[in-house]
Protein 1
Amino acid sequence: MLTFVVKRILSAVPVLIMVAIIVFLVLRLSPGDPALMIAGPSATEDQLQALRESMGLTKPLLQQLFLWIGQILSGDFGVSLISGKPVTELILDRFGPTLALSLSTIVLAVAVAIPLGVLAAWQQGKWIDRLVMAGSVLGFSVPVFIVGYILILIFARGLGWFPVQGYKPLSDGFGPFAVRLVLPSVALSFPYIALIARIVRTNVIEVMGEDYIRTARAKGLTEGGVLMDHALGNAAVPIVTIIGVSIAMLIGGVVVTESVFNIPGLGRLVLESVLARDYTVIQTVILLFSTIYVFINLAVDLLYGLFDPRIRY
Amino acid sequence: MLALGNPSTLVKATVLSLCLGSISFAAQAETTITAVMHAPLRAVDPVISTAYILRNYGYMVYDTLLARDSAGKPQPQMASWTVSDDGKTYTFTLRDGLKWHDGTPVKAEDAVASLKRWSQVDKTGQVMAKLLERYDITDDKTFVMTFKEPTGIALIALSKPSGVAPFMFPKAVAETPVGQPITSTIGSGPFKFVAADYKPGVGATFVKNTDYVPRSEPADGLSGGKVVKVDKVVWTTMPDPMTAMNALMSGEIDMVEQAPHDLLPLVDGNPDLQTIVFPKQVNQNLVRMNFTLPPFDNPKIRQAALLALDQQQMLDAQVGAGSKYGKVCASVFGCTGLYPSTYRADDIIKAHPAEAKALLKEAGYDGKPILLMHATDLASLAPQGPVIAQNLRDAGFNVDMVSMDWASVVARRANKQPVAEGGWNMFSTTNVGPDVGDPIGFIGVAAGGSSAWFGWPDVPEIETLRLDMAKASDPAKQKEIAEQIDHLVIDNGVMIPMGEFQQVMVASSKLKGEISAEAPVFWNVEKAK
C-alpha cells in the first residue's frame, strides 16, 4: 500500500510539471499586459517598460518559466503582480472560505443524496423513484445562481433567518461561521445531490439484481438489511468515485456561488486574477487545484480497497 | 446621597446605573460605514494608476495641497499660495498642524518630492513639468515653483481632482521610482488605512485619523474642512450587484457606490434607502478610431462614423430607455463642466445613415471590415459594442465586432500593428466628468500622434492650443481655447462623444452629509444610530 501511495505521488510530479508549463505558456501567450492594467492609459512607454521590468516580465519567456519553477521548488510562489502581496498569503486568505464551503456542501450533498438514491432504487418504478428522479433533473437543470437568489429571497430577505451574504472564519465563533454557510451550501449542493443520488440509484439497482442479494433475501434478511448491509456496500466503489470527483469539481468550481453569496474564496481569486492578468496568482492557484485533484484521486483509489476487499495495492 | 436600604431606591439606583452603563456603551460604540465600492481595491499606489478606486483610496488616506470647491475653483487645502506679479512664481505655504499618520510633521520637501513623482505620470503634471523651471524649498513649510513663462497651470494642476490627483506622500515614499508601485500606506489624510485588515480584492478598512486637523471652512466640493464623523469606513467588494442590493436592503451594508441602473426600481419608495447622484461624477461615453490604419486614416471616413452613430440608442442600452440618468451631449469636454459646447450637435447626437453612406462613397470606402473591440465584462461598456456595430452597419460600414474582456481591450488597443497582426480600428470606453472637463489633462483630446492616447491622432493645432491653455490664466481666454479645441476634435474625428450618464449611489437613509464632489468621499458623512 505504501509503495502504491509513493508511486502515485511520484507519478503526479510529471503531471503537475506539465500543468505548470501549460498554464504558464497559455497565460503568457494570451492577450493582456499586467503593466497596462496597473498603469492605466496615460502611462508612457518608458513607465510601462519600467513596470514590466520590476515585475520580471521583460526576461525571455523560457527564463521566466525556469525562474518560476525554481522559485516553486524552493517554496517561494512569488508576489502578486497587482497587489504586491505574497501569493501564498493571498491563497491562504482565500483557501479557508472555499474549503469550508466545499466541505459543507459535499457533506450536505452526501447526507441527502445517498438516502434518496437508495430510496429511489428500493422503490424503483414507483412514485417515490419518479419524484427523486424528477428532482434530480431539476437539480441538474436549474443554475446554482438561480437557486441562490431564490434562497436569499425566501430565507434572508423574507424570513430573515440568515444573512444575505458574507463569510466569517471559524475563529470568529461557530455560530457566525455556520449561519453564513447554510444558504450557499444548500444552493451549491443541488446539482451534487442530483448527481450522487442518480449514481447511487443506478448502482444499487444493478447490485440488487445480483445472486448474493437473492441469497441474502433467501436467508430471511429484512429488506433494510439487504439494502444497507449488502447492496450499498457493494455499490460503493462508483459512489466513492463520484463523491471524489464532486469534491474536486467543487473546489475549482465554486466561483458563481462565491460571487452570489459574497464569499471571498479561491474561485473569486482566480476570476479576479484572470481579469487583471495577475499571472503569478493564476499560475499558483491552478497548480494548487491540480495538486488537490491528484490527492483526491489518490484518496479515492485508497478508499476502493476499504469498500471492496478484492482491491489490494 | 442614596439610601441603599430602601428597596425602591435600590431599584432606581440599579436602573440608573444600567442606563448610565448603556449610555457609556453607546458613547463607546463604534460608528462604521460599510460601503460596496464600484471596484475592489487591489493596490495602494494612487499615483501609478488611473483606476478610480485608487483615486478614491487616495482621498481617504492622503491629502492634496489645493482642492477644488463646488464651483470648480482651486482653494487652499494643505497649503495656501501667493503668485508673483509676473505670473511666473508661485509660493506655497503649508498650514499648521499637518502630520503624517506616523506622527511626523509634513514638510515642504515631502510636497516637492510628491509633485515630482506625480508630474512624471499625470498628463496635466507632464504639461506642468514642461513649463516649470525649478522647485525651491525655502523652509520646512514653504516651497516655490518658478515657471519659464507666466502660467495658470500651477493652480489647475495642484488642484486636479480626478484621474491621478496630486496626493502628498512622505519624501521617502515619494522618491520611489514611478515604475515601482509604492506599498506604504502612510498619508496625512483624514483616514488611516488599517493595513492588517487589508485583503486585496476583498476589503479595506479605514479608521478616523484623530490627529487630523481639518480646515476651519465648511466642506465645499473637495475643498474646506474634512471633518470625519464616523469611526470607521469599511470598503467591501461584492462581485454580484444583486447581492449588494439585497445586502443593502437587509441592512447588512450602508451603501452601494454605483448601483446598476436596472436594479434601481428595487429601491423606489423604500423609506430606508436613498438614491444620490453626484453631478460632477458624470460619465462620458466616447468612441475612438485608429488614425494610423485604414479606413480611419481617411478623415472623411472618420466623419462618416461620426454621422453614423446615435447617442440616444447607446444611452438607452446602458441606462434604460427613458431613464433620467442618461443625457445626450455633443460637447467634447462634457455638458456639466466649464466648457460645454453645442458645436455640430445634431451630427454628433443623432444618426444620419444616409449622409454617412454618401460620405463613405465619396471617400472610396472599400468595404474592408472595421475591427471593433467590444469589452464584455464591464457593465457600462458591455452594451456599447452592439449599438455601435449596428449604427455603423446601417450606414454601410462592414463591421467585425470582436468581444473580449477589458484586460484584452487594454492590451490590444496599445498595439499599433495592422489588424491582421493584432491591431484594431475602433473601441469605445467611458471617462468621468472631472477628467473629461480638463482640456489639458483629458487623454481623449490629446493629439500628438505617437504620444497621444490609443488611436494616435496627429493634429498639431490641438497640441498648440492645449499648451496655450496651460499658459492661460484668464478664464475667458481658457474658455475660448477650449471651444477651439472642441471644434478641432470633432472636425478631425479625434474622438466621438456618445452621451453622458450618471452613476447612482444607493445608501441607507441613516447616512447624511454626503459631499457632492468629483470623487466619492467619506468625510462629513454622518451615520444615525
Note: The mean pLDDT of chain B is 92.
Protein 2
Amino acid sequence: MSGFNKVVNSYEEAMAGLKDGMTVIAGGFGLCGIPENLIAQVKKMGTKDLTIVSNNCGVDGFGLGVLLEDRQVKKMVSSYVGENALFMKQLLAGELEVELTPQGTLAEKMRAGGAGIPAFYTATGYGTPVAEGKDVREFNGRNYILEESITGDFAIVKGWKADKFGNVVYRHTAQNFNPMAATAGKITVVEVEEIVEPGELDPAHIHTPGIYVDRLIVGTFEKRIEQRTVRT
Amino acid sequence: MALTREQIAIRVARELQDGFYVNLGIGIPTLVANYVPEGMEVMLQSENGLLGMGQFPTEDEIDADMINAGKQTVTTVTGASIFSSAESFAMIRGGHVDLTVLGAFEVDTSGNIASYMIPGKLIKGMGGAMDLVAGADNIIVTMTHASKHGESKLLTKCSLPLTGAGCIKKVLTDLAYIEIEDGAFILKERAPGVSVEEIVSKTEGKMIVPDHVPEMVF
C-alpha cells in the first residue's frame, strides 16, 4: 500500500503531466532554495509557452534562466528580474511577457491561492503602475487595490528534509517562497536533500504539511551562490 | 561638502532607537548597520524571510541557504528567526517594522517615491520596495539630491513610474535632511559647509526654509 507515501523515483515521474501552456509556480529567492533539478527536468522535456510564477528568473545558464534558452517561457510573474541578460534581451524584443508584481503581493497571491481566497486588498502598489486596471477601495481612510490570487497547474518546490508522507522542512532562508508555492499547485512536486521515515521529523516543526504535497523526490543540488560576500 | 556614503549612513543611524526592528535597503542603507550606536540593540529584517541578520560570514561560515534580500551570503545574530516570504511581508505590511531605509531615483512634495523603473532603460522590477513603502510608517529615503548633470531629484511631481504614493515623509540626501509636510519640502538640516542657497537651487519642488537650518555635525 502506498497510502500517504509521496515518493517518486525519477524526475520524469516527478514532472509527468506537464504540458505546453501550463502555469508553474516555483519556489526560491534568487538562486537560494530553487528546485534546480525540477527546473532542469522542465528544460529536458522542452515544454513550451509556460507561464512561470517565481520571484526571480534565475541567472543566465542557471535556475529558471535555463528555460529561456529554448524559449520555453511565454510569461514570467516576478518581482525582480535584474540578474539575467537573456531575460532582458527577450523582454525588450517582445518575445517574453513579464508581469512585475511586488514581492509581498506575490507571496500573498500564492498564499491566498493555496488557501482558497480568490483575491485580497492591499495598500501595496496603490497609485503606481501596478494598480492599473485594478479595483480600488477605501478602508478606514486609506486606499487599497484588489489583487487576485494565483494557483498553478504545477508547483515546484525545494525543501531540505521531508518524510515519505511529504511533510517538509526548509533550511535557513532557502524557505522563502517555497511554503506558499507548495500550497498553490494543482500538482505540487517537492524535491529535497534527504527523505526520512515518517515520525523522524518533529510534527511541530513541519513547515509544509504533507497534505499539500503530491510528489516527493530526493536529489543532489549545486546550490550556486549569487553574491558571495565574506567579512575579512 | 556633500555627505559621503558613510556620512549618510551615520546620519540615518541617529534615527535608530534601542529595540527597533529595521529594514535596510540595498546600497547606502545597508551601511547603516555599521553605525548602530554602542550599547543599542536593533534587529535587522531582511524581506526574503529573516529577522536578526548578522554580518557577512567568514569563508568557513558561508552557506548557500543563508542569504539576505540583496542575495548576499550573511549570518544570523543570536535570537534571530527565519520564516517564509509571506510571513516576512506580513510583518512589513502589518506595520510591525519600526524603521525602513531605502534609496530612490526621485521623490516629490506629495510624498511620492519613484525607485524601481526607468522606462525604456531599466526593467528590473520593484522587489519588495512597493510593500515596504506602503507598509511602513517610519521611512527614510536616502538619495543624491541632484543627478550628475545637476538635475534635481526632489520634485513637484515625480517623472518616473511610482513605487508608492503619498508615503514618504523623511528624505536624507547628500546635501540635506528634509521632511515632507503639507505639499512641501521642509529643510531641516544641511550638510557641513553646504549653503541653504545651494540646496534650494538644487530642489525643483517647493521648499520651505526655516529661519535657522542647523549644519549636521560629524
Note: Helices of chain B lie at 5-13, 28-31, 85-93, 129-135, 196-201.
